[in-house]
Specification:
single chain; alpha+beta; 10 helices; about 40% helix; about 15% strand
Length: about 280
């Protein structure tokens, strides 16, 4: 390909962004940046657009992985990208592909009227907040829990869990062959299964647990998973909240919108669905 006379007409980077994580959760040389710390982002190719319209590829996550790799070649392994960086790169890919503005169809929560709102994506990028220190949760001075945001695989697993949960509960509620006791039993088993999966995904965001008294550092994934399932609900909720807050670092997608029909004003977080976001 290096001798191809058409090389000069290939895609070139159209956007440059800094990652909110600043590379904090990655191994050395994970991401290639310019001297100012910015990552080059290319527009989507025609093949990328087709991939994002292929339902099976989107559902199993492979489509988005391939598209990110193609548009951000400076990232060596997109599966390890953490959520704040993923959101920033998706925005930058959209800007590089179709420009700095995008439209969302959103219904007013007050009157129900549907409106199309134009949003400046560059302004959202500029809300970015960097993660400047290693996130640690202190458990009563006894344990120090080092956490990180969800990576691409965790984010995808969580999405699949939510889809399965919604579909399964819907099917159970619509199954007229079940009496109330049987339905309740199946719902209970399903909820337990989903809870177990959620804690499995959650435990992957714990990088290490330090026992303060002995300074022992526990990194074994099985030990950490057992710990997460063996603590109290209050303690688990503390970890869940901290990781959720960490996942939401980076760009602020909330927009203040006003309904032109009833003048109602509200704040709406924007959803970046890869299947339609790049249209």
């Amino acid at each position: 390909m290096s001798n191809n006379p058409l090389n000069r007409y290939f895609r070139t980077p159209k956007a440059y962004v800094k990652l909110p994580s600043q590379g904090r959760f990655y191994p050395p040389n994970f991401v290639e940046t310019a001297a100012n710390g910015e990552v080059a982002v290319y527009p989507l190719s025609a093949i990328d657009q087709i991939l994002l319209k292929t339902p099976d590829a989107v559902l199993n996550g492979e489509a988005l992985l391939k598209v990110v790799k193609n548009c951000v070649p400076g990232v060596s392994d997109p599966k390890r990208l953490v959520e704040p960086d993923i959101n920033t790169l998706l925005l930058a890919m959209r800007i590089a592909s179709t420009g700095p503005t995008a439209e969302w169809d959103i219904s007013c929560p007050n009157c129900g009227q549907n409106h199309s709102f134009e949003v400046n994506l560059t302004n959202i990028i500029e809300t970015q907040q960097s993660i400047t220190e290693d996130p640690v949760i202190d458990f009563n001075g006894e344990l120090r829990i080092y956490i990180r945001p969800y990576d691409f695989e965790q984010r995808h697993l969580q999405l699949l869990n939510e889809i399965e949960e919604t579909q399964t509960l819907k099917l159970l509620n619509e199954d007229n062959s079940l009496d109330e006791n049987a339905r309740s039993e199946r719902v209970s088993r399903h909820v337990d299964k989903m809870a177990g999966r959620t804690f499995d995904v959650l435990s992957l965001s714990i990088q290490m647990i330090e026992i303060v008294a002995t300074r022992e550092q526990v990194t074994d994934r099985n030990f950490i998973a057992e710990f997460v399932k063996g603590i109290t609900k209050t303690q688990a909720d503390t970890i869940i909240a901290a990781i959720r807050d960490l996942n939401q670092k980076g760009i602020d997608t909330r927009q203040t919108l006003t309904c032109s029909s009833c003048s109602h004003e509200w704040t709406q977080p924007l959803d970046f669905d890869p299947t339609s976001f790049f249209d």
